[in-house]
Acyl-CoA dehydrogenase family protein
Amino acid sequence: MTFSLQPTYADPELSELVHGLRDYLDGELAEYEQERGLTRWGRLTRADLEPVWRRSRELGFYGVHLPTAFGGRGLSRSALGALKEEIGASARVLGHSVLGDMGGPLRAGDVLEQATEQQLHQYLLPVVRGERACCFSLTEADAGSDVRSMRTTAAKVPGGYRITGHKVFSSAGPFADFAIVVARMHDREAAFSAFLVDLDSAGCEVVDGATPMSGEHVESDIVLRECFVPEANLLGEEGEGMRIALGRVTTNRLLHCPSVLGAVRRIIALTRERVLTRKVAGGRPLIELQAIQHKLADMATGYYAARSMTRAALEALDAGADVRTEAFMCKLFVAETAFRIADEAVQVFGKDGLTQGTEIEFLFRKIRMFRVLTGTSEVQRNGIAKELVRGAQERTGR
């Protein structure tokens, strides 16, 4: 794999998808956002998103990773990662809606495989078609990295369940029709179940949650007060909720990395443009300063290293390897490297890097979040150490 801020791919299908995606992001979607006056800090509406869902599906991007039976192209994880990187590098406000991250097929995850026929036709296939949207509600105020400490409970009642609890940081919550909610069984402390909960149900309220430091308004809290959920909306069996919620954690952890790497690409490209055009005392361009050259070189090298290890791990996953350790490593290294690169970019941009409303300042805040989201860097280090110890114990039989 060679270094480039505009990666190319030998696989003809992937190359065609990447070029088509770039054209859509930089052309039609950019024009759509400009026409509607959309910004990263504005409040998006369902009316803003739905046309993008439909158009992206027409173009073959929405749910492209799904099996052909569901209208996708059955992409490998490494190919999907390449597309997610392009989204991250595009600077599009609605980029998250093109592949289905914002309430679409990527948000639903593996639930398609767990669903009954009724659940597929009533809930999930409409999501795949861009007609409905969903959110995933797992995190609670005191249950982040340790999700098993959640206090939301589901009590069995005639015909279904009564769910009570308060979920936070439900991405796509402001636009969703239903949520995939994981709750602790009321009569079994260690058992968790997953449910499809209509967000207009009695006892269910979608409210504004805390605004993340990125300033984006794409999260919500889901408040459940004795909310009745029919038995037909139980996903899988009782007690399987945590397996459903965390079953693809390794894959999901890896697939977050290309999105961040795309943002890093964007940062490096913006920084390169800045140092070529910004003048210092005497009218010389900033790039003539050796200190600036070294910063740009370190940024590009960090990106190349992080991207290389992520691509290698995704390709190993596609080949059927167990990449739990590599997934921890990639999440840790990408998060920490991306933050250092973003921090250097702010330093290079100076005042403009500190000014709210500039793209570099936004990207710095956005990337800073990745050191916490989807598992903190400390949690990743714990996972790496645990896997190393486990491997040693297996070899020695201790």
